[in-house]
Amino acid sequence: MKPAVPAVPSAFSPSSPVSFIDLQPAAGRFLDDVFAGLGGSPKALPPKYFYDARGCDLFEAICELPEYYPTRTELALMRNYAADMAAQLGEGSLLIEFGSGASVKTEALLRTLRPAAYVPVDIAADALHASTARLAAAFPQLPIIAVCADYMQPLRVPELKHIKASRRVIYFPGSTIGNLTPEEAQGFLGRAHELAGAEGAMLIGVDLKKDAGLLHAAYNDAQGVTAEFNLNLLRRINRELAADFDLDQFRHVAFYNAAAGRIEMHLESLRAQAVTVSGRTFAFGAGERMHTENSCKYSVGEFQRLAQAAGFRPGQVWIDADRLFAVHLLRV
Ligand code: AVJ
């Protein structure tokens, strides 16, 4: 079922360069999603719930790991080619970013693109507040309209009548598109195509297919930070949904599924056990897994075909010398 598009409160104050619009999903959604995921077979949990305050910190730590190549590779692409990207897109656009998090990758782009306004969208309210405060100080002239929302759901960007923009540019870094299956990704890109509108464009970071050993290491780091990140989901469920997961009785599992072209993360029950969540009990067999994340990898051609199926015209692609990561320009 298509969820209702939430109404946008008129929170914008033209006197302040930063405004904050809260479209966070209702708290009850988390419990519904966990019940649905644990009640299914195989069991699964949506990866968007990784990002509570501790989850955001752990993800930041993952981004610094020697094995986790995507963040530093994409950041270098953004820094090296920001001028090139801006030349393709033109000044004065409305820059909408999905999953802006700490907005580190956006800085070079903001300098070269010189957008009319910046609309960071993220589900993590705390990260959004922190990053917009930092960016407002670095770009005092730039109107920033932060939107706290689940951008994977249909999203209506508020009418910004006071902002004259040449076009909409959607920036979606981090290869977060990989969390979706190709079918879901096509639907998501189709909605982004609609949101971008006439003359619009999308700039999207996509992790490339590569040697399985490199991929395996990136999701099974020696320090165990990724394992902590995965297990933190159970800690969050315990705290927010009155559950009693014993974190010592589950282990992190991540592997490359070559047939599906994706890393899969799971949490595996070390023994037969029962877990209660808000009064409902779920049985786990020894070795039973909960699927917590997909991270799909795409060759340039595969991703361009997907974008085309969603209505986009593929444009320039920026790739690092080691061919680890791609940033694609897509035009409406
Ligand atoms: C933020 C979804 C792009 O898939 O690489 C990192 C999340 N999971 N390590 C990824 C993640 C485990 C990350 N994305």
State the main characteristics:
single chain; 332 residues; alpha/beta; 14 strands; 35% helix; 25% strand; globular; disordered N terminus; binds N,N,N-trimethyl-histidine
What does this structure look like?
- This protein has 332 residues and is α/β, with parallel strands linked by helices.
- Helix content is 35%, strand content 25%.
- It contains 9 helices and 14 strands.
- The protein has helices spanning 28-39, 53-64, 69-89, 106-113, 125-138, 182-196, 212-219, 225-240, 300-309, and strands spanning 18-22, 43-44, 94-98, 117-122, 144-148, 168-172, 201-207, 250-257, 262-269, 273-277, 280-284, 289-296, 313-319, 325-331.
- The strands form 3 sheets. It has an 8-stranded mixed β-sheet, with helices on both faces.
- It binds N,N,N-trimethyl-histidine.
What's the topology here?
Elements: E1 18-22, H1 28-39, E2 43-44, H2 53-64, H3 69-89, E3 94-98, H4 106-113, E4 117-122, H5 125-138, E5 144-148, E6 168-172, H6 182-196, E7 201-207, H7 212-219, H8 225-240, E8 250-257, E9 262-269, E10 273-277, E11 280-284, E12 289-296, H9 300-309, E13 313-319, E14 325-331
Parallel strand pairs: 1-5, 2-12, 3-4, 3-6, 4-5, 6-7
Antiparallel strand pairs: 7-14, 8-9, 9-12, 10-11, 13-14
Helix pairs in contact: 2-8, 3-4
N,N,N-trimethyl-histidine binds at residues 62, 70, 174-176, 178-179, 219, 226, 293, 295.
Separation of termini? 26 Å
Our count of helices gives 9
Cα Rg: 20 Å
Helix content: 25-40%
Strand order in space, largest sheet = 1-5-4-3-6-7-14-13
Q: Characterize the largest beta sheet: strand count, sense, and whether it forms a barrel.
A: 8 strands, mixed
N-to-C SSE series? EHEHHEHEHEEHEHHEEEEEHEE
The total beta strand count reads 14
Q: If you average the pLDDT, what whole number results?
A: 93
**Low-confidence parts:** 1-16
Dominant shape: globular
